[in-house]
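User: My collaborator and I are trying to settle a disagreement about how two of our proteins should look. Neither of us wants to argue from intuition anymore, so we agreed to look at predicted structures for both before our next call. Could you fold the first one, then the second, and keep them clearly separated?

Assistant: That sounds like a sensible way to settle it. I'll keep them separate. The first protein:
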Amino acid sequence: MSLPLHNRRIALTRAAEQSAGLAVRLSELGALPIICPAVGFALPDDYVSLDQALQRISEYDWLFFTSANAVRFTLERLRQLQIDSTQLEQLDLAVVGPGTARWLAAYGLKARLIAEEYSAEGLLDAIEGIEQAQILLPASDIARTDLAEGLRLRGAYVEQVVAYRTVEGDGCALLAPMMRLGSLDATIFYSPSAVRYLLKGLDRVVGLPEAIPLTNLGAIICIGHTTAAAVQQAGLPVAAIAAEATDDAVITALLQHQNQLGENA
C-alpha cells in the first residue's frame, strides 16, 4: 500500500531551522520535501529599545508574542542580559497559536491566553479587560502595527519593540529551476513575509512576469488566513488553509487537498 503523499514534491518556504520537523513528517508520509527558505531571521540592528523594555520587565502587565521567533529572540536576549526570567511568571503571557505556546513551554513558561486564530485579530478577539494595562509586544522589524493599534483602542498602553529582523532567505535559487520543470506538487507558506520574499527572489532570478505563473504550478497551502490573503494579493490561488498554526494542521490541509484531487480525477 502506497503512502498518501508518495513522491509528492513539496516546497517548504519557512526558515531552514524551522522546516526540519515538518520535512521529517512529510517524508514519513512518502513525500519528497524540499527545504528552500524564502525567509530567514537575524539579530536586530541594535538592542536599545528591546533592552530598555526588558530591563523594566516587571513594570508590564502583559507580554504578547505573535510568533515563535519573538519568543526565541526575546527570551535569549533576556538571558544574555542576565535578567531573572522568573519575573515573567508575574506577567500575563499571550500568544498566537499553540505552536508559539509550545515555545514558551520550552522555556518553562505558560501562556494565559492562546489565540486560536493565527492573526492579530485573533488575539484581539480573545482578550478582554485590558484597559490601562501595560503591554510589551516584541516583534519583527517588519511586523505590522495592527495588534498594537487595536490594543491601544481598547485603552491599553502598548510598547512594540524590535526583537529580531526578518530577512530574505536563499531558497529561490533552488526553487526556480524546479518550478520551471513543473516538478513541484505543492508549496507551503507560513507567513506573508515568506510570500513577499519568495516573489522578490523569483523576480531577481527569473523576472516577476514568469515568477507568478511558475508559483502557480503547484498547490499553495497556507498556515492561516493572513498568509492566504498575502498569496491572493499577489495574484495567486490558495488551494488550502491550515485550521491552526501547527505542522499537524498543515499536513491535514495538504492531505485533504490531495483527497479532493483524487475525488475529482
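The second protein, kept apart from the first:
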Amino acid sequence: MKRPNILIIYTDQQRADTIGYGGNNLIHTPNLDALAKSGALFENMYVNCPVCMPSRMSMLSGRYPASLRIACNGIPMPKDIPCIHNILKTYGYRTANIGKLHFMNHSDRDHSLPHDDYGFDVLINSDEPGCYNDAYIKWVEKQSPEMLEKCRCTTPPHWTGKPVIKHPRNTNNPYLFEGPEELTHTSFVAEETCNFIKNQDTEPFFCIAGFYAPHTPLNPPRRFVEMYDEEDMPLPIRNNGENFEDTSDRQWQKVKTYYYALISHIDDQVGKIIQILEKTEKLEDTLIIFTSDHGEYLGDHGRIQKCGPEDSSAKVPLIISYPGKVKKTQRYQEITEGVDIAPTVLDYCGIQKPVYMQGQSLKPLMGNKDFTKKESAFIELKVPYTCAYKAIRTKDFLYCINNNGEEYLYDMKTDPGQLNNLSTAPQYTKKLSEMRKKLLERYFSVESQEPLRSALY
C-alpha cells in the first residue's frame, strides 16, 4: 500500500478556544479554519498531563503519563520508549522534528552540545525562542546577524547558566517582538519545515513542526497585534478575588490580544507550509494533524500558564485533515485524549498498534465504523515528593483529587467556567461518589503494566 506522509503541527500552550472555525469570532485564523474545513475538528480534546514534557512524551508514545511514570517537567524521556517516529522508520519513513521537542531538560543543559536525536533522521532542535545558543539562534545569525539581539528573549527563571535579561516572561507582561517578523521562532520553524518537505522525493515522511508559540513570552510581531482591538477582548473567567498579581482588567485584555496575535502569526506560517505541500504536489498524500501540548489560563481562575485540569489548561485544539480520506467539515464531540494521536497515525499508515500503546485510533470514528466512545479523559500531574492530582473530565463533569485530599467537582451544565466547587454540596453527594469510582476505574487502566511477567512463577 502507499502510505501517507504525516505532518504534525504542534503548538505550545494553545487553548482549545482559539480557532475561528471552532467558534471564536474574535481570533484571525484563516489558514487553520481552512484546514479544519478540509477535514475534522475535534471539539473535546484533552491532554493527559497539562505541562510540556510529559504531554509531548505521552502524545508521541501513545502512553499515559502514569504508564511512562513521568507526570511533570524535569524528567527526560527514556531512550528505550518507542514513539510514533521510531515505529514509522521501520516502515521506510524519513522522520524529522523541527523546533520544539522537549524530550530533554533545557534549563540546565549546554545548548552548544549535540542534542540526542531520539531516533529522528533530522532533528533541528530549539526548545526556546531566542535565549539559548541553539538552532534558532544559529539560523538568525545566518539570516541577519545584525538582528540577533533583537531576536533574543529572557532566559527562563530556572536557567542555570548566564542569564539573558530583556523583557519579563510572565503571561501578564506582553511586549512586541523587536526584530522583523520573518525572524521569529515561528518563522524559523515554518521555513525549516518547508525546506524539509521540499527535499523529500521518494520516501514517505513523518515531520513534526514544533512551534514554540503561543507559549510565553507573549511577544508577537506588530502586524498581528494590529489585527485586534484590545477593548473587544473578554476578561478572564474567575471568582471574586482571583486575580494574578492584581493585574488590571485592561491589562488582561492586552494579554489576550498579544496571545491571539501569536496564534495569528502561527496561522500565517501554517499557510506557508500548506502552500509548500501544494506546490510539491504532496498535499493529497499527507495526513495533517494540528494540536497543542496544553492550554493557558490567561487569567482564568486567577492563574496564568498551565498545570491544572481545568479546560483553560488541559483542553486543546485538534484538527485532522487528509484529502479524500477524511471527510470535509466534520465536527466531533466525542472525548478525545492526547494518547489517541499515535494510534490514529499508525492506523492511517496501515500499521498494527503495539500492545503498549494505550490510546485508540480515531480513524474508525471518522470513517463511520464501529467506535467505542470514551466516557472520560484522564488528566494528572505528579511532582515527586511534592504535589500531585488525578482528574477525569466527562462530558458534563470535571472531578479532581490532589495529594492533600482536596476534592473538586464541577458541573459543566450549570457552570461551564468551572468556578463553583460542588464537592461538598449535599445535592451532589451521589455524583461525587460516582465520579470517585470512575476515577479509580480509569486509574487502573492507565497505570504502568511493567515489569511484565517472564513466567507463571
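Some points you might bring to the call about the second protein. The two ends are 43 Å apart (CA to CA). The chain has a mean pLDDT of 96.
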